[in-house]
Amino acid sequence: MTFIDYYKILGIDKTATPKDIRTAYRKLARKYHPDLNPNDKDAKKNFQQINEANEVLSDPEKRKKYDQYGKDWQHAEVFDKAKQYREQSSDSGGTWYSETQPEGDFSRFFESMFGGSAGASRSRQVKYRGEDYNAELHLDLLAAYKTHKQTLTVNGKKIRITIPAGIENGQTIKISGHGGQGINGGPNGDLYITFSIANHPRIKRQENNLFITADLDLFTAVLGGEITIETLNGKVKLKVMPETQNGSKIKLKGKGFPVYKNEGHFGDFIITWTIKIPTNLTDKQRALFTELSELKYNT
């Protein structure tokens, strides 16, 4: 495995505090987000490396292993267990390495211990499960509305996944077997993907219901009429009842967000009317409103 300097990727040194790591990550994530760099073919790769570096360095345990074992940090538990085995086996004929040796010697240790080249018999090999990976995937509300496929690059490998409609912000799903490679034929780890869903500029989501505030002109509110509302699933023409009040709501049943892994089921789409008072009236319009006002008090 090629060594990746996570400190260099985030532009920080090894004495960086957790706050320094968070600040560097947020700055670089914004700069290299693929959505903001559609013409940069390396944006996705850079963004993935930034997320990977943050995932390791922001976790105290992972950072400790990374600082101690370098590129072999994901196999730290294997090394520790093997060291314990060595201490308990005084008759072992293999070559052993101390914790104080250079980072490169850990690779030779794993090769001699588990590759069988330095006297470790196959009967002593122990199967170890690979490391679990964690990743964050950013979606907008419209993308989360529909089932679709995406290709991710994880640790240099492309993985094509299906994202079910109705995925929640902050929800984590497991992709079995796509984590770190197992040792000595052990099973691979798993990949855990946490979804970050951006807010929509007009439509708010609350579980499976969608909420929108729509403007209604005074004349339509008073006299009634029709208005077209744009939902995530297309435009809908609505009938407005006469004398509609400001702040009143209507519910479009089944026009909300899809229920996760429950095909054909949706939440509701709830509209709150905001009645707009006309401005820049002409003299004639103002006179008509004055006449209406007088009629109100004369009846």
List the helices and strands and how they pair.
Elements: H1 6-10, H2 18-32, H3 43-57, H4 60-69, H5 76-88, H6 103-114, E1 133-139, H7 141-145, E2 148-154, E3 157-163, E4 172-175, E5 191-197, E6 204-206, E7 209-217, H8 218-223, E8 225-231, E9 234-240, E10 249-252, E11 269-276, H9 283-298
Parallel strand pairs: 1-5, 7-11
Antiparallel strand pairs: 2-3, 4-5, 6-7, 8-9, 10-11
CATH level 1 name of the largest domain:
Mainly Alpha
What proportion of the residues form beta strands (DSSP E)?
15-25%
Structural class based on helices, strands and sheet pairing: alpha+beta
Oligomer: single chain
How many structurally independent domains?
3
At CATH level 3, the topology of the largest domain is Helix Hairpins
Helix and strand run? HHHHHHEHEEEEEEHEEEEH
Percent of residues in helices comes to: 25-40%
Number of helices: 9
- The backbone outline, from C-alpha atoms, is elongated
**What is the distance, rounded to the nearest whole angstrom, between the alpha carbons of the first and last residues?**
87 Å
Average residue-wise pLDDT: 80
Count of beta strands: 11
What is the strand arrangement across the widest sheet?
Answer: 6-7-11-10
**Stretches where pLDDT falls below 50 for ≥5 residues?**
90-105, 113-123
Largest sheet: 4 strands, mixed
What is the level-2 CATH architecture name of the largest domain?
Orthogonal Bundle
Radius of gyration: 30 Å
